[in-house]
Amino acid sequence: MGETCYSYKRNKRCRGGSMVAQGYRGERITRIGDIAKSILLLAAATGTGTLFQKINLPESNIIMAYIIGVLFISVATSRRIYGLISSVFSVLAFNYFFTVPYFTLKAYSDDYPVTFLTMFLTAFITSTLAVRMKQQTKDASEAAYRTHILLETNQLIQQQGERREMLRVVAGQLVKLLRRDIIFYMAEADGLSAPYIFPAEPEHETGNLEQKMLRHAEYSSKKERQAAEQAFCSGEPAGAGTEIMPQTRCRYLAIRSGDRVYGAVGIPIPGPEEEPEKFEYSITISILGECALALEKEEALRAREESALLAKNEQLRANLLRSISHDLRTPLTTISGNAGILLSNENSLDSGSRRQLYENIYDDSLWLINLVENLLSVTRIEDGTMQLHLSTELMDEVITEALQHINRRKTDHEILVVPSEEFFLVKIDARLIMQVIINIVDNAMKYTPPGSRITISARRQENCVVVDIADNGRGLSDEAKARVFDRFFVAGEGVVDSRRSLGLGLSLCRSIIMAHGGTIEALDNQPHGALFRFTLPEEEVTLRE
Fold first, then answer.
1. Same structural domain for residues 268 and 170?
2. Average pLDDT, whole number, for the chain?
3. Does 85 share its domain with 199?
4. Cα distances (angstroms) measured from residue 384 to each of 388, 427, 488
5. How many CB atoms sit inside 10 A of residue 347's CB?
6. Within a 10 A sphere around the Cβ of 350, how many other Cβ atoms?
7. In the chain, how many domains are there?
8. Last residue of a domain, one of 125, 154, 183
9. Is 496 a member of any domain?
10. What is the pLDDT of residues 240-278, one digit of tens each?
11. CA 203 → CA 154, 175, 212, 266, distances in Å?
12. Is 463 a domain residue?
């Protein structure tokens, strides 16, 4: 029963028969072709000599015709032996056809032996030089091809950023070079990964599903994996054609740079006749070296990025701790001081003084609660555990509810809610959107003098509900508007209540609004002041009669 096969030599893909027989057949055809070329060129040299003899040219011209024939044979054939044999046969042919007595291998003239020896040496040296020049041309061509494919591989690898894409590029180059399947094992924390198999033929030409599964099972067998692990651990070739587990289907080469091994690559070698050519093998080693260097560079870049991220996180943590320690000290000192006054002088204080102390304690405790809420929300956003509990809400009701949680210092500011003539429904996490409103209003009260006006309004714009929170304070600079939503950024040096801000409130607002699919921005209020505007997708309600 015939089967589909693919030759791993440079010849075309074949159908039917074994790959070993294919290799023998190719060599036999090449050998027959070289013999035929040699015979034809010697016959052409003999015919040319016959022509020279008829027009009475000297024997030296006939000898030159044979030397040129040997030169052409050395260039046209694949092995040096054909040039050597042709040198011998050219001497014999000259003796047989052009020396007296004709058509015999005898020579009456005493100087013919020297002529024959000179002719043989000249033909042999000429064929040797021709073979050497041909080899040099081949070496130069191979070197140019090697340089081209390595440069191409390097350029393709440099264009990729991820490790998997690098492997895909390297596998594609190896498949193009060797015309056989390529198997990749990559290093992982606990050893080698599962094999990545890159077929030599397009998916639509690799046979039916059963053949694909059979081939995958062969490459993924326990024996093949053990050979790959041997190459990975030792850094030396293992598997088919080596002294380490030679009974496997593939030869495994380590992807290494110095003492570091990044994985192993499997190259199918069904038999000794299917060994890659030395030139192909050397390019394969070079490509794997390029791959190892690229993986080393990618690993170093990733480590550098992780170090930079770690340093940044450490800096953020240090800033956070420094800000928290500074911000917590002031309200806690105030709370403890007011509580101490009440404990030691409760009976001597009038009701107005006691109430003022109670309000101060209450205000400071609310500020601390808001700070803790912001910190908890930032933590949830950082570790990805913040979940939105969405429900359909009226925007006006959310604003009203948020204002009831505003710090008691709002009595020093005029907070005006502009009523709208229609209802705006939004699908939001009401608790988080209330926190956005509280943070923006609290920020406006901090950075505007007592008696300032804070205006809140809502309107519809296309399919969104737009909420504007504006104040008539001194406003924001262009630099502050660009950075006001950055974490730990604080606009200006002075704060009305003499407390520094953590710089987390507005950053948290942006994260919450973006999680809802909206936008937030800082603008100038007219004629002066700051305006914070955020949008939320409007919820559509279908009424059924």
1. yes
2. 80
3. no
4. 11, 21, 20
5. 5
6. 8
7. 3
8. 154
9. yes
10. 888 888 889 899 999 988 888 888 999 998 877 788 888
11. 26, 14, 9, 19
12. yes
- With tokens 């939320």, the residue in question is 536
Task: For residue 394, list its beta bridge partners.
Answer: 425
Which CATH number does the domain housing residue 445 bear? 3.30.565.10
**Domain of 216, in residue numbers:** 160-304
Q: Is residue 268 part of a domain?
A: yes
Return d(Cα 238, Cα 183) in angstroms, integer.
14
The one-letter amino acid code at 319 reads N
Question: Do 126 and 183 share a domain, yes or no?
Answer: no
* Residue 470 identity (one-letter amino acid): A
In this structure, are 148 and 85 located in the same domain? yes
Tell me the average pLDDT across 82-106.
83
- For 360, half-sphere exposure in the C-beta direction (CA atoms, 13 angstrom radius) is 20
pTM (2 d.p.): 0.47
Residue with tokens 């496997």: 248
CA distance 74 to 85: 10
Examine the domain organization and report whether 441 and 520 are in the same domain: yes
Segment 333-361, tens digit of pLDDT: 888 988 998 888 878 888 888 888 888 88
* Amino acid letter, residue 105: L
Q: Which of these, 512, 492, 511, 508, lies nearest to 500 by C-alpha position?
A: 492
Pairing of strands 453-461, 414-417: parallel
